Amino acid sequence: MAEAFVYLLRCADGSLYCGWTNDLQRRLRAHNAGTGSKYTRTRRPVALVWFEACESRETAMSREWHLKRLTREEKIQLIEERESHERDSQTGGEA
């Protein structure tokens, strides 16, 4: 079972925010309430567009560090790959 998560949010202004948490739904609510981070406070509402489960807090923090160094285009590619995978799962892999 996952102990922590790393995630990407799409903010109302189109920017992306990366973070980690041990409670994904609570953290998303906090971001949308304006208490999640200084960055997202003025860019609400935010939407969860990508996440990854991690075995430990340390793993999530390390993954966050690496994701923050990706370009915007690389982050968008991660999001699109996840969306494509979810669509394939819902349709049984049919195109």
Structure description:
With 95 residues, this protein is an alpha+beta fold. It has helices spanning 24-33, 38-41, 57-68, 72-91, and strands at 4-10, 16-21, 47-54. The chain is built from 4 helices and 3 strands. A 3-stranded antiparallel β-sheet has the order 2-1-3, sandwiched between helices. A hairpin with a 5-residue loop joins strand 1 (4-10) and strand 2. The longest helix has 20 residues, at 72-91. The chain is globular. The N and C termini lie far apart (32 Å).
**Number of DSSP E strands:** 3
How many domains make up the 3D coordinates?
1
Mean pLDDT: 94
At the first level of CATH, the class is Alpha Beta
Question: Largest sheet, if any?
Answer: 3 strands, antiparallel
The radius of gyration is 14 Å
